[in-house]
Amino acid sequence: MNEGEPGRRVVDGRFELESRLGGGGMGTVWRAQDLLLHRYVAVKEVRPPDIDLAEYDPDAAELLRQRVLREARALARVEHPNVVTIHHIVDEGVGTYPWLVMELVQGGSLADRLARGPMAPAEAAQLGRGVLDALDAAHAAGVQHRDVKPANVLLRTDGRPVLTDFGIAAIRDATALTATGSIIGTPDYMAPERVTGQSGGPAADLWSLAMMLYVAVEGYHPLQRGTTLATLAAVLQEDVPPPVRAGSLTPVLSCVLVRDPEARADAETVGRMLDAAAAQPEDRRPETTSYRLAPPAPPSLPPTDGMQTASRRRRPAKRNRGVAVASSVVGVLLIGTLAWKVLPDGNDKKDTSASAGATGQTQQQSTPTASASQSSAAVKTQDLLTPSGIRTAIKAFKEKTGSDRFADFSVYPGYVIADVMVKGSQTRYVSYTYRSGTGFDEGFDSKSTVTDGNEPVKLDDFNWDAVPALLKRANKDLKVKDPTSRYLLLRPPSTNGGVTPAGMAIYLSDDYGSGGFLEASTQGTVTRVVPADD
């Protein structure tokens, strides 16, 4: 690294970094100018999620460096129009991490495209075929991707997909467990066998591809939950609900999104099915102005006598049995010392607090505590989905952690879940659950890193006094006749596909999975309203 023009950094004396394109736990991507060939390129600064890895575990850091170099060299031999081209590797030796110089794809990502609305099945099938071709080429070279997701599919200006972040994703196997016990990877698109700690194979990449296509046509992720742990548990325990808008793409999703990798269709079969789906007459495209996104399900929490579980997400009835992470979940060796949360017992009840008015009056309820003497006593609780309740929770998180920066913040009437940044870190956070009346759920905190493009935020500048008015408007405009669940989610600022400012969102849903949401700025100005389906 050396200096070029004032304020500019130059890598390897040749690549002048101009602007940041994105970044996250695995590094930062820059738009750069190749000063020798006079062209623009993308330069990725590869680094582990734990920036202190080289200091406390130099052997692991060197292993990571060697793994990146090996995977990058293997990928450089893959010549395919749907695979991002690696032009150059900058390696400064032991104690450093490599820089990868790649072609600059300027059409945005699939994540950017889906932010504008879901895709028609034929369109998604055509895109999926291009990504499958990229995976086939890489698998033939002995390279697995391990992190197929919308953010890693770039689009050329003519719409053709280009799969990126090969090899970089592969280092996750070498650093599956950091000293902090953090999860490395993207749980939403991770195949079940990889969640259980197995290395997986090409079939695991096919699962990720199929899940990405499901999201592309349905408009929501069927297994995404409010916390990383709950999402991982859903991947391991819950069936993927049958798609309703996939049209000609339905057979592909049905034969790939099965837990047993041996039972999944192989790449050749998937290719034929994608070709057939893409050749079908254009399925009716969902209208993005009226398409309803199913609100995310409240996270799975350890049940307590005083807390009613929130309503289920829209999906077929299934076994939602309670588990304490045993048998099939033994694979949590992937995350070492990570403490798993117990899933609810399946007897979902109405969240009676959800029907309370938007003013959120203080109420009495009986909540057990850790001590036997307290368990039989009534504990005065506060509706946390109120300005005072939110401020009480924020204060509690600050006092517990010493940090005032949050990667996520989810508020329910009886509890709040927050991803609080580790003090002094830009990427690491710890998830905590705070309950009204009883405080923090001890033993159920978990650790991870922020995802690419998302930025931590301070909550002091939010206008929490606007929450009652937002709830009132949600009750009126979201058209959820008998809401049994209501909650507020933080919208953290993001650099994916441009700069998205911080904000918040109010969700309402009923026992049938029908729900809607509204989004607002940090000051409470409503920016988007998506009512429930009739």
From TrEMBL:
Chain intervals with Basic residues compositional bias: 311-321
Biased composition (Low complexity): 353-378
Keyword ATP-binding: yes
Residues that bind ATP: K44
Keywords on record: ATP-binding, Kinase, Nucleotide-binding, Serine/threonine-protein kinase, Transferase
InterPro entries: Kinase-like_dom_sf, Prot_kinase_dom, Protein_kinase_ATP_BS, Ser/Thr_kinase_AS
EC nos: 2.7.11.1
Top-level enzyme category: transferase
Stretches the record annotates as Disordered: 276-322, 349-381
A GO term for molecular function: protein serine/threonine kinase activity
This protein's record includes keyword Cytoplasm: no
Protein kinase domain boundaries: 15-278
Family annotation (PANTHER family): MITOGEN-ACTIVATED PROTEIN KINASE KINASE KINASE 20-RELATED, SERINE_THREONINE-PROTEIN KINASE NEKL-3
Name this polypeptide is given: non-specific serine/threonine protein kinase
Organism: Streptomyces prunicolor
